[in-house]
Amino acid sequence: MEHSAQHPVDPPPQPPAERSPAAAQRSGPAAPRSRKLVAPLLATALVAILAPVSASASAPAPAPAPQQAGGAQGPCMKGDGSDGWTATSTKIDPKDSHHAFVGNGYLGQRVPPNGTGYAAPGGTTGWPLKTPEYDGSFVSGLYAKGPKSVKGRQAIAALPTWTTLEVATGGAHPDTFSSATAPGRISHYRQTLSLRCGFVRTSLTWTAADGRATDLVYDVLADRNDAHTGAVRLRMTPHWSGDATVTDRLDGRGARRMTASDAGGKESGGQGVAGKESGGQGVAGKESGGQEPRGKESGGGRDSGRTMDVGFRTDGTKTEGAVASTLRTGPGVRAGRSGPTPRADELSNRQRVSFPVRSGRSYELTKYVGVDTALTSRSPRATADAASRRAAGRGWDALFARHAAAWKRLWRSDIEVRGKRDLQSWVRSAQYGLLSSTRAGSGNSIGPTGLTSDNYAGEVFWDAETWMYPGLLAAHPELAKSIVDYRYKTRAGARANAEKLGYKGLFYPWTSGSKGDLWNECHSWDPPHCKTQNHLMGDISLATWQYYLATKDTAWLKSRGWPVLKGIAEFWASRATHNADGSYSVKNVAGPDEYSNGVNDGVFTNAGAATALRHATRVAAILGEKAPASWKTVADKLRIPYDSKKKIFEQYAGYKGTTIKQADTVLLMYPLEWPMSQAKAARTLDFYAGHTDPDGPAMTDSVHAIDAAGIGEPGCSTYTYLRRSIQPFVRGPFDQFSEARGDKAGASDPHAGKPAQDFLTGKGGFLQTFTHGLTGLRLRENAVHLDPMLPPQLSQGVTLRGLHWQGRTYDIAIGAHQTTVRLTAGAPMRIETPEGDKIVSRGVPAVLKTRRPDLAATTNAARCTSAKATSEEPGLYAAAAVDGNGTTAWVPNSADGTLTVDLGRTTRVGQITPHWNTTQPKSYNVQVSRDGKHWSGTGYAGRTPARYVRVVVHGDQAKGKDGKPKPHPGISELTVQRAK
């Protein structure tokens, strides 16, 4: 468990130091440091010169315009971003709401482009709240009564924004830098998210209205080492002399679904219940001073002796809490106490320091934030204040070192994708998203957007168990545990739900908040997914069983796992209906495909129910409990719809082949591992992949990729699906994930609104394409099953480090032809493979064959070769036309387009045939070339040597009756026959 007393196992890295942009230009080397600090810095630091880029073409250039921003970065900022460890924005785009964020699994905060304060970028969020977007701060598990628009059902509460440190110039024409400062007054802008160390740095030059320029550098973090703390460091270099004022603000504009409160009463040094702030009177906040422990600030600083806070009470749930801030000044800041600073509202507080500045000199101020609630403290105001002072007592250097060391420990588990810069960045962004929103020792689960926003009301869905949990479990079982522990924590609500609905056991709501109360927390009643999305019980049961498989923690299984598994088995036994033929049905359900509701015998629902009953029976045997005979009877006789004519599993009884919203039947193969032949699996995957709404939620293609990898059909469709699971959804400079390709998550969903972001559900699915797709990883009671494969596009290899299973730590290095499994810690482990069982021990790795479906014999010279196109619709990429699978397709992003295929070498080719998707072109022609420059042939079907094949497609330029462009023609597969 991460906490403040935990010391880093590794030597703590030095905090990144960055001088102000202009100061770096003029002053040359950094100021001397102590010998003890200089030595490790010289030994390990990597100097990164960060070239300034103007945020706006119209930004005024200050007289002493900075030329570079840099300094000793250390491991946190090294590299140019190509390794995925940093993500950088060099331009402020007011239309882009995909802002950077920091999180430690308990506390999360969006950071606006200006690097500090509250921002509301515009637009509205999606279902169910559909409220204006804002950069929020969230605490895991802190729920409140929602607005009237959702009939008061729960939603995650948002804290007052705690990142604000505003800078004001004095004199006759004062001006203030804040989150609202226009891009036109900002130059030399650079904002970088360090994924390696979990913090955001924003460096810029601000030009005030009167032309005075100031270099500003903000560092923001949520302390990974101490869950209840955050910190904001400001370094400023004015290019003018006079008086400056820095305002530390707790901004109530960021608060949602809470009111002001005492949150715990007096604090030592406080001023009574209401408290006071810089001489002003308040209701919720207070300021104490004079007795805090003094800490050094980056080489020796001064303690301003100021701690203020804001107390709150969440609406409806009435959870007390507080946010506190201690402001410390660094060397050279001779601060005088400001006069009264009236608060803007009862959920805000602020304190100011004014001090003289001289041109060219740098000044540093740091605010240390403490957050706590009654969910984790009997006196949340006292503990929030204490956390703030504790952090201030450590000072920035020590705090950052411990924070970075905690992140370093997390990154011992990592995925390396060689030769693919974009995939590497996306993989690390996906990992960062999940790590930022989960924490060891927590009893809280994770919503679809984690701690990054209140999308989906911040509640818990099946997304947690099915999409985010498996990748976490493989690499970080201590973090994944919180997801299954949440279901144990809310089991009383689940039992009450089942009883009110007339069932036995446990019934978890489709969307869940603080207690799992169906009627107070679940949002989807029309259609009634709250009652019909019963597959959730199977999802929870599977995750619970998987945690046991991953850890072999029998004590946990008995105390926490078994009550959940047993309760869910009792539910399914009471939910199933006995049919006249002896079979059982589950009627009136909705599967994951939310376009169908009120159907009977959903195939994934029923298969999940049978699996849950069997796992509960097995756990009963492990623990010496007696399982009712009815569990096995129902499991064995539940109907599993199958279409014998099409030879595919039927999504539900009577399914007619309609479009589906998202992955449903394909989940039989993974994660359920439902028994079926390879042929049945391939036909089922192809059918449903071709019937899935392309505008549906982002995670679907990740399970298509995993299924394709497991099936191993000749070709490389695994890579097509892998790219489709990520590329259409990446947004903004920080590689955040949108829920949908377009502007709506589900074209046929009347309730769908703006796609959620940062959509951790999609990121979790994408990670599983590596942890479970390419590796073939499946957990067993006494072994790990591996069946590695690699598409040719990843032939440089993929390495997964720091995987965990039952007390062991191991790495999997997938190469183009062989895969090496190395045990790095723990007892020898057994691996179950298609080649037979193998034992891996320290120093004795196992070498497995890497499956390569692309190398299967074929007469199609184009299969799995390189392809490019003049344009592509999102997700319908050029490579799909040559991946060997007719379900995937390349579609141009306009009526006309050109596909060019490089066969890799000159080949004597015969018939060339484009196989079209559902839309035929008005005309097309095929051309060939030896060098890619000189082309010949129209409707080519000869026997000429060629290396390149080009297909020029002409579609219908006219618009349909609805005024929209007609569907574009595309190529599902291009076959180029090798001439004999």
Taking Cα atoms only, what radius of gyration do you get, to the nearest Å? 29 Å
Main sheet specs: 10 strands, antiparallel
Helix content: 10-25%
Q: What is the typical, i.e. mean, pLDDT?
A: 89
Architecture overview:
The protein has 980 residues and is of the alpha+beta class. The protein is built from 17 helices and 44 strands. Strands 3, 11, 12, 13, 14, 16, 19, 20, 21 and 24 form a ten-stranded antiparallel sheet that branches. Strands 10-9-15-23-22 form a five-stranded antiparallel sheet, with no helix packed on it. Strands 25-34-35-36-39 form a five-stranded antiparallel sheet. 60% of the residues are buried.
What's a concise summary of this model?
23% of the residues lie in helices and 25% in strands.
Structure characteristics:
980 residues, alpha+beta, 23% helix, globular
Write the layout of secondary structure elements.
Blueprint: H1 21-27, H2 35-44, E1 47-50, E2 69-72, E3 86-89, E4 100-103, E5 107-111, E6 137-139, E7 143-144, E8 155-156, E9 161-169, E10 176-177, E11 186-194, E12 199-207, E13 213-222, E14 229-238, E15 242-251, E16 258-260, E17 276-277, E18 280-281, E19 285-288, E20 302-314, E21 320-329, E22 336-337, E23 349-357, E24 363-373, H3 380-410, E25 414-417, H4 421-436, H5 462-475, H6 477-489, H7 491-501, H8 518-521, H9 529-532, H10 535-551, H11 554-575, E26 577-578, E27 584-585, H12 603-623, H13 629-637, E28 642-643, E29 648-649, H14 678-689, H15 700-711, H16 717-724, E30 730-731, E31 736-737, H17 760-774, E32 778-779, E33 784-785, E34 798-805, E35 808-814, E36 818-825, E37 829-832, E38 838-840, E39 846-849, E40 866-869, E41 896-916, E42 923-929, E43 945-954, E44 971-978
Helix pairs in contact: 4-17, 5-6, 5-10, 5-17, 6-10, 6-11, 10-11, 10-12, 11-12, 12-13, 14-15, 15-16, 15-17
